[in-house]
Amino acid sequence: MAKNSANGEHQATKKPPPTPSPLRFSKFFQPNMRILVTGGAGFIGSHLVDKLMENEKNEVIVADNYFTGSKDNLKKWIGHPRFELIRHDVTEPLLVEVDQIYHLACPASPIFYKYNPVKTIKTNVIGTLNMLGLAKRVGARILLTSTSEVYGDPLVHPQPESYWGNVNPIGVRSCYDEGKRVAETLMFDYHRQHGIEIRIARIFNTYGPRMNIDDGRVVSNFIAQALRDEPLTVQLPGTQTRSFCYVSDMVDGLIRLMEGEHTGPINIGNPGEFTMIELAETVKELINPNIEIKMVENTPDDPRQRKPDITTAKELLGWEPKVKLRDGLPLMEEDFRLRLGVSKKE
Ligand SMILES: NC(=O)c1ccc[n+]([C@@H]2O[C@H](COP(=O)([O-])OP(=O)(O)OC[C@H]3O[C@@H](n4cnc5c(N)ncnc54)[C@H](O)[C@@H]3O)[C@@H](O)[C@H]2O)c1
Ligand SMILES: O=C(O)[C@H]1O[C@H](OP(=O)(O)OP(=O)(O)OC[C@H]2O[C@@H](n3ccc(=O)[nH]c3=O)[C@H](O)[C@@H]2O)[C@H](O)[C@@H](O)[C@@H]1O
């Protein structure tokens, strides 16, 4: 850290991050963009990888510990010369030379992030520290997938990025939402202290093909239940709301944020808001009209309402979602039918 000799006070360094290896400027070297995607074997990560691989200038490295992700999600890229897959836990340091880091690694379904809460915190805090250390060493730009859960059980509705949230710091969801809040803090501290180029996306409930069938999140639960002829389990009171974003819209928003000039945090989500009873009724109508809707117990600290204010994303990224819930659900149904082996009744 630079020292100011005039008054003896320590000041934040204005030093830019280190430049990439000289090899990258050699005329004999392919000027490809090398991109690390942590958590790339998961639901959103694997769709992001598909999109990044479409660009022939991109080389993609995925680092994943397969806690909630799977090699299956990436099978079409395994063996591709521009693709590498590493079994790696982000709570350990990673040495790779990359230009960009999409840092997604973290279990996202409440059932999975509550399963080993201490590990969830380590993943969010130590994992993000490790990825920021990597970004600092190689001069990479880093994007963190934060969450609408940083707003907790929001008292402001819809939620703009300026809202500081209403989070229980000692509850059963805190490992995830406080973990992500610390991850955001670390991102900004590395940015201010070391000049790291950061991007923060606050993702709101995202759904689509490749979600784990027994993932536990509401959309995947309802579709799997409808296809298995089981009652749709609406957790009480059923009037709580969520806003559901289709995964292709999400990936488009994340790439725009990474490529743009704004650090964020920026909300990326679909503002269409539904109660859980409305969601169950829609799934019933579209997929299985004979199914029963059953009210069941909820879990502690479940947010009562959630809807993104996406003014910032519209203005700064020129982004807004295109896929409506009624159009996205059938695309997910198709994928779940294939994986569950349940064909459509004529
Ligand atoms: N899907 C959503 O609705 C949503 C909403 C808000 C934020 N997010 C964030 O987006 C990211 C991706 O979410 P998703 O829905 O694809 O979840 P997911 O569970 O399908 O994917 C997470 C991936 O991270 C991997 N992972 C977990 N811990 C790891 C560790 N310690 N080291 C390496 N890999 C690890 C998992 O194996 C998995 O492949 C997460 O950071 C999540 O917090 C998702
Ligand atoms: O978007 C976000 O920011 C966060 O959203 C979700 O968290 P949550 O909204 O609690 O997701 P679900 O588990 O899908 O629950 C949504 C609602 O559906 C209800 N639910 C869930 C499951 C079910 O079978 N039935 C049901 O009614 C829950 O009570 C809750 O009110 C994700 O799982 C987090 O990873 C993510 O960060």
TrEMBL record:
UniProt domain NAD(P)-binding: residue ranges: 36-330
Phylogenetic placement of the source organism: Eukaryota, Viridiplantae, Streptophyta, Embryophyta, Tracheophyta
Function: Catalyzes the NAD-dependent decarboxylation of UDP-glucuronic acid to UDP-xylose. Necessary for the biosynthesis of the core tetrasaccharide in glycosaminoglycan biosynthesis.
Keywords: Cytoplasm, Decarboxylase, Lyase, NAD
Family: Belongs to the NAD(P)-dependent epimerase/dehydratase family. UDP-glucuronic acid decarboxylase subfamily.
CC terms in the record's Gene Ontology section: cytoplasm
UniProt-listed Gene3D superfamilies: NAD(P)-binding Rossmann-like Domain (3.40.50.720)
GO BP annotation list: D-xylose metabolic process; UDP-D-xylose biosynthetic process
GO MF annotation list: NAD+ binding; UDP-glucuronate decarboxylase activity
Domain of life: Eukaryota
EC number(s) from the headed UniProt entry: 4.1.1.35
Cofactor: NAD(+)
The protein's annotated pathway: Nucleotide-sugar biosynthesis; UDP-alpha-D-xylose biosynthesis; UDP-alpha-D-xylose from UDP-alpha-D-glucuronate: step 1/1
A Pfam family hit: GDP_Man_Dehyd
Name of this protein: UDP-glucuronate decarboxylase
Organism: Coffea arabica (Arabian coffee)
Localization annotation: Cytoplasm
PANTHER family: UDP-GLUCURONIC ACID DECARBOXYLASE 3-RELATED (PTHR43078:SF49), UDP-GLUCURONIC ACID DECARBOXYLASE-RELATED (PTHR43078)
Segments of this protein annotated with the region Disordered: 1-22
Reactions that this protein is recorded to catalyse: UDP-alpha-D-glucuronate + H(+) = UDP-alpha-D-xylose + CO2
Broad enzyme group: lyase
Annotated Polar residues bias: 1-10
